[in-house]
Every structure is written in C-alpha cells, then in structure tokens.
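cache lookup: miss for this entity combination. No prior model stored, computing from scratch. Input as submitted by user K.M.:
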Amino acid sequence: MSTLAANAPGAAGSGLADVAASEASLRRFLHGLPGVDQVGLEARAATLGTRSIKTTAKAYAIDLAISMIDLTTLEGADTVGKVRALCAKGRTPDPSDPGTPRVAAICVYPDMVATAKDALRGTAIQVASVATAFPAGRAALPVKLADTADAVAAGADEIDMVIDRGAFLSGRYLDVFNEIVAVKEACRRPDGTAAHLKVIFETGELQTYDNVRRASWLAMLAGADFIKTSTGKVAVNATPPVTLLMLEAVRDFKAQTGVQVGVKPAGGIRTTKDAMKYLVMVNETLGDDWLTPHWFRFGASSLLNDLLMQRQKLTTGRYSGPDYVTVD
Amino acid sequence: MAKNKNVEEPVKKSGLFEYAPAPESPAAAGDIASSYGHFIGGEFVDSSGSEALKTVNPATEQVLAEFAQGTDEDVDRAVTAARKAFADWSALPGSERAKYLFRIARIVQERSRELAVLESIDNGKPIRETRDVDLPLVAAHFFYYAGWADKLDYAGYGANPKPLGVAGQVIPWNFPLLMLAWKIAPALATGNTVVLKPAETTPLTALRFAEICRQAGLPKGVVNIVTGDGRTGAALTAHPDVNKVAFTGSTPVGRAIAKQLAGTRKKLSLELGGKAANIVFDDAPIDQAVEGIVNGIFFNQGHVCCAGSRLLVQESIQDELLDALKRRMGTLRVGDPLDKNTDIGAINSAEQLARITALTAAGEAEGAERWSPACELPGNGFWFRPTLFTGVSQAHRIAQEEIFGPVLSVLTFRTPAEAVEKANNTPYGLSAGIWTEKGSRILWMANRLKAGVVWANTFNKFDPTSPFGGYKESGYGREGGRHGLEAYLDV
C-alpha cells in the first residue's frame, strides 16, 4: 500500500511525498498541523455571516449558488420516477425563466445512476453517486470498492465516498488514507479517465475542529478532488465554521502543493440567506479561483426552491410564494 | 533607501463577487438639531457663553451640528443640579434605582438602530461595529449595573456602602456612547449623580442619551451633560463640589488631572493610553491568531486604548504569519462607515489623522518597512489605510508611542522570557494578548505580563462583568464588573 501512498497526486513535488510512508509519519504530520481555536473560528464564521449582499451582488450570488448545487435525493424511497423528476428540475429549475442556470449535478445512490445519466443526456449536468456503503461506511473494503466501481460503470461522473470514521477516531489514519487511495483507483474508467472523487468526513461525527483539519489534509494528501462535510444523514451536518475551516485547509494545501481541491458543504443549507453566507466565506477566504461549480458545490435539495423564489423576487420585484416553484 | 522598501500594493481589478453598496440609511439617526445646548437639571438649556463648536461627519467632513462650548458657569450650574438631585437619588432604595437603569437599558435596545447610525455618522466607525459591538455592550452595561443596585451590601464592601456624591466624568471620542455607559451605569447604580462631558468631536450620542434619560423618567439632575472641549473638562474636574472624577483619554491629560486633584478629597479613576503587545507563539492557532491580530489593531480604526498595536511574533513563524496576515489585510474593506460591509471606517478627526500620519512617517524615517494592502480611499473625509510595519525594534517611536490608528508594528522574539521582557518594556500596561495552544504557557505569561487585561487566544473582548483598567501609565481604578463599583463607593 505504501506505493499507492507515494503515488497520491496531492503529495507530488511538495515535500509531502513521504508523509504517508508509515502510520507514524502520517500521525506526526496530522498532529503537527496548527490547532484550531473553536471560539475564534466560530466568531470569524459568524462575522462573515453578517455581510449584507444586495441587488447586483445578490443576483450574481443566487445564480452562482444555483449553478453550484448538487441536487440530491438519497432516500430509501427513491424510485426511477422520483429521480427522473429531480433530473428534469435540475435541467429546468424555473420553467418560467429560461435564463435560470442549471444545477451542477444530480446526486443519487449508485442504483439510480443509470436513470439519472439517461435523464440528463445532452446536458453538462454531472451525475454524482454516493458510494462506499454510504452513509455509515460500515462495510469491508472490497464491498466499498465494488460499490464504487459499480457506480462508475453505470456512468457516474462523480463519486461521493465516506471515510471510515471509526478508523479515524481510533487513530488509524493510514487505514483511512489507504482506503481513499483505493477508492480513487476504483474511480478509474477503462478509457483512462476517472470519476471525480469527493471525500465525505461526516464532520458531525468527527466532532472537533482539530479532527476536521486533520481529515481535510489526510483526504487531500490521498488525492481527493473535493472534500465534503457531511452525508446529510446525521444530526449535525454542514455548518459555517466547519466549512470555513475546510476552505482554509484547501487554501493552505494549494499554497503548499499547487494542487487545488474543491469544497462541498452538504446538509442543512436550506435558504438563500444561508447560501449567501457560504459564498461570502468562499469569496473572502479563497477568492475568484474557487467561485465556480468546478471548485465549490452545495449538497442540497430544498435550497434550490428558496433560491428560485428569491430569484423571482429579484427579477419581478414581487415575492411569488412556494406555489410558484415546482416541487419535484 | 528606506523609501523603496515601503510597499503599497497596486489596486487590483475587482473580483467576481463584488458586494454592491449596502448602505444603512442616514435618516435612521433621527433628527439632528442644527445646534445643541447642554442638558442640565433634566432640561436642554442654552450655554451662558456664546462660543459654539462644530461636530463633523469624519467620512464626509460635513458639519453635522453646532454645540455649546461649556463655560465655567455652565459647569457650575450642572454640578449644582447634580448636587441637588443627589440627596433624593442616593436615598432611593437600590431596587428603585435599578428600575430606572433597567428602563434605560431597554430604551437603548429599542433605539439601538438610531443610536448606532448616529454614532457612525458622528464618529466615523463602521455601522457593523456600532450595531454589533457598541450598542449591545451599552445596553449590557446598563443591564449589568442595574442588577447590582439592590445588591451593594453583597459587593464585598460591607453593609450599606455609601455613594460618593457628584461624579464629574470626562470621556473620549473613540467609543462615545459605550464610554458614557461605562461611566454612568455604575455611578447611578451606586447612588451617585453625574455631570458628564463628552468629547468635542463626538457629542451627539451623549446628547441623544439625555433624551433617553427623559424618556425613562429619570429624576431631574441625576444625569447632566455639558459639552465642550478640554477647557470644559478642566472646569468640571476642578469644580470644588465634585466628589469623584473619572477620566478616560490620553496619558498627558490624565497626568494633568491627577496633578490638579492632588491634595483634594476627590476620588479619581483614570483609564489612559496603551501600547499592547499581541504575542503569537509558534504553536498558536494561526488562522485565529491572524483574526485576533486584525481585530486587535484594525477594530475601530485602531482608535482603541487597549489595541494590540505591537505584534510580537515568535521568530520561527514570522514569515508564515506575516504572509497570512497580509493576505487577510487584503480583504479588509475600507470606506463608507454606513455601508454594512465596511470593516474600517473613517479616522475620527483631521487632528488624529495628522498624528497617525506623523508617527507613521517617523516609522519610515527610522527604517521600518511599511506595507499596506491595495485599497481605494474616498475623496473626502479622513482616511488611513490599514498599515503594517515590519523590521521594527524597541527603539523605534512606533514601538513606543501610542499611535491610536490602524497601524501595526511587528517585532519578533525567540523565547517566552524575551516575549515578556519586550511586552512589558513600555510605560503603558493596559492590555496584552497571548496566542498559544499551550494552557500552561498562557498562565505563565499572564502572571508576568504587566497589563490590566490579558487576553488568551482572543483580543478586544469586552463584557460588563469583567473589570477593565491599567497598570503603570495606563491609569488606575477599574471599570466593569464588581470591581467597577468601588470607583463610585466611599470605601
């Protein structure tokens, strides 16, 4: 496995190549990262949350937010019909205004990938699939890899994997690292291309901000294309401070390695006001480089309709209400 | 040679996500009269003299209002009114005095938007700060001391501690309404009556507060406001019937007051200048330390007596920390104080701007390297870019003198002992900050720093329950908390 570690893309040419050479070196590195002061981090996130986004800035941010959405359905009750409806919504979020941008991706379970792929044919909308025994990740590695390969084979453009939180919390960082490397390998397609890999930490289970910073670096070193807060399936999902911390991590990682990694907060972001706060954090922490759907996503379902209502309000000057956006 | 080392980044093209103007309405400040007299004995009265001063909006240089230059006679009338009110006010049960203070606190909350906008207009500080810091703290201060009014027996000064009498209070321009609250709330809770003189560049919120006293039905003469410049202040502190003098402002003026009061029976508390060290160790939480440094020196344009104006950074992380700090300073938004997205507003006065300009010029002349982020400044008004000086040594004036502006001097240290030595190497001793993940080091440092407030992994945090005050030439006496009662009690 150590060869995989050395091949991890994030590590190349940055003096970080040997970090994952052993359990001990990886632990030393992760525990040597600067600490996070909880009070200070939360205060900074709260301050950025007071930015007042009006008129032209609001119009820009609403369209940007819509274009960054991974429109998601991850229910046991999902059906082909439900997924098709969601894809239709993603293609035409607001039938009353064709100028409305499309969402970035539709996010589904692996068995729905083919359906989504079919429904999105002819668009640039990506199909993202959760994998690796989502959401708990409690399965053997071969099962997780098969889950991933299956989704990729069905046409998934992006894979949202979960880390083994049990391994992380018990300090087996190298196991987590190697698993990400292996899943990344499973994202490869026969033609040599690969599905984009988003790595979910389930920050509500990691609990401390120090853990979130360590998980961020661990995943980036292992080759994550995106780091993602949560599954949406636990009590605490994306929060502004957790996301801010991950934004700082990708900023620092790029400064050190030259490799840019995306960020996806997921779960609990429901209103335009919330989305604005996240975009302000991206803007003031990372700037223009990350202000595109290539590098920042919202994992959300109900957020889209609130953005559409605010968009209608901005374009028409009237607040139309929830009966004027489609429920899919 | 020093000249070409000094860098000011070119103004870059705006980014993708430009915030549209989000101005708070100036009309929310309510009616500003064209001229003001004093507030004495519960009434707005004209000055006995004819001299009038002007207060301007420092962001536009427009005159907001004229106000009276208080004469000796005005001061005497105010002290007489306060003396007259003292007998009944001090005889009220504490629970009755508390009712008035609670009422004032609630009215401040209800009128907080109006007061925040008025404060921003008169002072130049951003609405984000008046709205989120000044006004909540003003209300909190009145609420807090309202709670003490009927519990003075349990404050640790024995049963039934007595008030002093008439308090003459002189406050600065950097937190006009908040400093008023720090002075008036404990004085009234303990049964004193007051004559307060606001600063000559920022009288408007104090005069508006006079309206609130009337709205709250506060007995006449308990609070009196006399406006004017230093001459009025000197008349107030010198008045023979004043029992207590409380002053917040510069060390030279504080020293003059202390001399003036020597040999009298007046009780004195002084809260003066500072040159605080913000000390960052190599194991600090870097991102939060950067926020703390920014908040320490750029909060309120650096017009803060306890500002973290000296950054002491451990040499081993100097480059990393300064890179991060410069990157962060590049996102500071300087401009219209009433724009809700403004981080740094206007310098309070032309006089203060001249002082900051002169001291930073001295910094350059002495060989320190100057850096400011790119930012366009408005054409009118008094503005100063957030500024960083590196290569500063203890011998430089910018390391010793209080600049009272958005100017940070960066020094380095190698060991904790050296950090303490450098931090304490100043005539001041108001505050200090320590940034480290090591709890034991925080305590070790705090025991050795000669500063009234030591913040750990934070900076510029204020709370009415916490005493505030200085060591050495930063003054004496404490404001806030249980300790703040002592300054207004005969104990």
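stored under new cache key. Chain B touches chain A through 25 residues (CB under 8 Å).
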